[in-house]
Amino acid sequence: MLHDLLVAIFVTTAGLTASGIVANLYRLAAGKTDPARAVYLAVMVVAGPSVLLDNAAKARRKKECSHIAFWLAAALTLYWSLAIGLFVVSVALAI
């Protein structure tokens, strides 16, 4: 059971890492070009967890959201990162 938990944690962190990388690459590229809405939405599918957690943390620091809203956003971020991580790890294993 501990092995399964460690695999789930690894996959979730892999997804959050991939999300952060995509979000930062998009922020670098968005300053130089005017991206179309479809490109923005496609990027946010992968970069969403990182952006969501960043926005929730900023709102929490400014006291603009409650503890419950912050932890709900954090839970959604972890679940979304797990899904992305499963995809990333399965692609890495296939290569």
Describe this structure in words.
It is a single chain. Helix 1 (2-30) packs across helix 2 (37-61), helix 1 crosses helix 3 (67-94) and helix 2 packs across helix 3. The protein is mainly α and 95 residues long. It has helices spanning 2-30, 37-61, 67-94. It has one domain. It is 86% helix and 0% strand. The chain is flat and about 45 Å long. 20% of the residues are buried. It is built from 3 helices and no strands. The two termini are 27 Å apart.
Element order: H for helix, E for strand: HHH
Largest sheet: none
Strand content: under 5%
Detail the poorly predicted runs.
none
Structural class by sheet pairing and helices: mainly alpha
Number of domains: 1
How would you summarize the topology of this molecule?
Blueprint lengths: L1 H29 L6 H25 L5 H28 L1
What can be said about this structure in brief?
This protein is mainly alpha-helical. It contains 3 helices and no strands. It is flat, with a radius of gyration of 15 Å.
Please tag this protein with its features.
single chain; 86% helix; flat; mainly alpha; 95 residues; 3 helices
